[in-house]
């Protein structure tokens, strides 16, 4: 004759079965009641537990099993049998010292995931934080390195989504979410970098200070601050102000370098960056052509020598004029005697 009784702690059950058979001259004695279960009221994953199932007295020893709903727990248990001399009956004791997440109804988050949601909008971005497998629901909080951090929040079960207005200065800033969960002391946190769609903004840098002499190797670098990256094109304008085939084209890039050798003719250069959200250009950059340092030095020496010669000649003329004036102003000796 089989009898089954169940016990419940949270979502866990247990049962015992007394199997009828003859043992010598002794008669079978069925358990006189269900097994007794002792355990903590809250069973938390990762903590050591002590779940003890004790049968009532019977003969032969009752068989004890731990079950969750209708499924037998697949784990090792510590089983012992106690024999009572006075009654000739047996008491079975089974102990469980480990606990798995799927057995209980209170567990911390297994992971905390944060992600920027691409909304395809240049001014609004959404960020989502999810506390996976948490029970009960966790309280999710937000922080950021953005100077003025204002947002609209949509709370859900273990999921929090925020919407915020962003500008270029917010790009690359850090956003942090943390989960505070009932019954658990540890606080989980995770962070991400704020990346959102934006059209290019172009900046130009030169490898040398202008003006430069002819036949100088010069590198023009175009920086395109955009997300995602797009295409960058360098174009040139010559005397008739018509675009030429000279230039550089960079695909899916954030920088594009145009290397050139200057000539004795001034030229204009323009950088254009374009992605799926817009475009920007540098405007035309004039490359001023100067003279070489050697020629400049000779010109300076020539100018200095000319200035020195001019000053010497001017001084000599001044001295000659002063001599002539002195001679005109002094009376002769004869004229003085006559007076």
Write the layout of secondary structure elements.
Elements: E1 12-17, E2 36-38, E3 51-54, E4 63-68, E5 71-72, E6 78-84, E7 89-96, E8 111-117, E9 124-132, E10 139-144, E11 152-156, E12 159-165, E13 174-180, E14 188-193, E15 202-206, E16 217-224, E17 230-237, E18 243-253, E19 255-261, E20 267-275, E21 278-281, E22 285-287, H1 293-329, H2 333-338
Structure write-up:
- The chain has 339 residues and is mainly β.
- Helix content is 13%, strand content 41%.
- It contains two helices and 22 strands.
- Strands 17, 18, 20, 21 and 22 form a five-stranded antiparallel β-sheet that branches. Strands 2-3-7-6 form a four-stranded antiparallel β-sheet, with no helix packed on it.
- A hairpin with a 2-residue loop joins strand 4 (63-68) and strand 5 (71-72).
- The longest helix is centred in the C-terminal third of the chain and has 37 residues, at 293-329.
- The relative contact order is 0.08.
- The model is unreliable at 1-23 and 332-339 (pLDDT under 50).
